[in-house]
Amino acid sequence: xxxxxxxxxxxxxxxxxxxxxxxxxxxxxxxxxxxxxxxxxxxxxxxxxxxxxxxxxxxxxxxxxxxxxxxxxxxxxxxxxxxxxxxxxxxxxxxxxxxxxxxxxxxxxxxxxxxxxxxxxxxxxxxxxxxxxxxx
Length: 136
Prior knowledge:
The longest helix is centred in the middle third of the chain and has 30 residues, at 75-104. The radius of gyration is 16 Å and the shape is elongated. The chain has helices spanning 2-28, 35-62, 68-71, 75-104, 108-129, 132-135. It is mainly α. Helix 1 packs antiparallel against helix 2 (35-62) and helix 2 runs antiparallel to helix 4 (75-104).
């Protein structure tokens, strides 16, 4: 399960970066918001939610919440038991809010800006708490 979560994270990160770059270029170049842009945002939403589900299952299986007081004393353990899960949930909440808000927008620029803001913040959250020592 840990391997699935790790490999799926590469997919989530790549798609999230691509979506944010696409949204920023859409704003800068004043492009029309097309079905491709909509699908890209939706695909990012779906892939990130799948990662959340995999992460929840992994969290329960590994039992990182057991002996929480001892876990908080070790920075690496605290990252994996509290900081990483919390920031990833917040990132996925931002992606979900961004998806919902862009659906209500009528102007192309507003849709791109919504994706750029919410998905961009989510990307920053993800990058800030990826356990980099486990990635390489």
